[in-house]
Write a structure and sequence with these properties.
The protein has six helices and twelve strands. It is of the alpha/beta class and 227 residues long.
């Protein structure tokens, strides 16, 4: 009995060049778009609520000076960079479509200059970069200075702008006594406890009838005419 031999059929597959090109093209497009997406730079940066730092200073501090990749620049990284600046209290970052970033900051307030440093409202000392502020002209012990800062920061901004010089002048009655030299030529004595009495200064002025002198708000609330 003869065995039937099965013939082996060899199928030759043709190389589908067109499909190969399509696959290569699709891969190229995906890689190209991915590359463009990752390397697309930040286009616009908007800075909000800055009073003491310029827009450019905020951009520099945030690490965005050269407008790096939008996708690879994280909000966490921007915020971390900004909070290294002693003047910045808080930062909120928003990333919008088309490479737009919004940076909203809140700043500590520079209060006065002391020992060639600017004193912020949280007690931090920073370099004096030509700030126009009152100058505390003599030395104050740290405990008294801290108390003074905590009261002084709550003075109305309008009044702060009218103070040109601060001097620590304790006497036998009060070791926490200061003298403010005002821009209009008047002098005002206060104590740390009564610091906020200076907020009434503009209401008191009309009663002085244009005379210049010393206003004692530390005790007695009376005015001594000098000229």
């Amino acid at each position: 009995m003869k065995e039937n031999k099965k013939e082996e059929v060899v199928v030759k597959r043709k190389f589908k060049f067109v499909k190969f090109l399509v696959v290569i093209l699709i891969l190229y497009i995906i890689l190209f778009l991915g590359y463009k997406l990752f390397t697309a730079k930040i286009k616009n940066i908007f800075i909000l609520n800055n009073n003491y730092l310029t827009d450019q200073e905020v951009i520099d501090e945030s690490g965005l000076r050269n407008y790096p990749s939008f996708l690879l620049t994280t909000k966490y990284k921007i915020k971390k960079n900004l909070l290294k600046n002693s003047l910045i209290k808080e930062a909120k970052i928003k990333k919008k479509l088309w490479g737009i970033i919004y940076i909203e900051i809140s700043e500590y307030e520079p209060l006065f200059i002391y020992q060639d440093k600017v004193i912020l409202d949280n007690g931090t000392k920073i370099d004096n970069n030509d700030y126009i502020l009152p100058i505390l002209i003599n030395d104050v012990n740290e405990e008294t200075l801290t108390k003074f800062i905590n009261k002084y920061k709550d003075i109305d901004k309008e009044i702060k702008m009218q103070i040109s010089e601060i001097e620590y002048l304790p006497n036998d009655i009060d070791k926490e006594r200061f003298l403010f030299t005002m821009n209009d030529g008047n002098y005002v004595y206060i104590t740390i406890y009564k610091t906020l009495a200076i907020n009434e200064y503009n209401k008191i002025l009309p009663n002085l009838e244009g005379k210049k002198g010393i206003l004692y708000l530390d005790s007695g609330n009376y005015f001594e005419i000098l000229s």
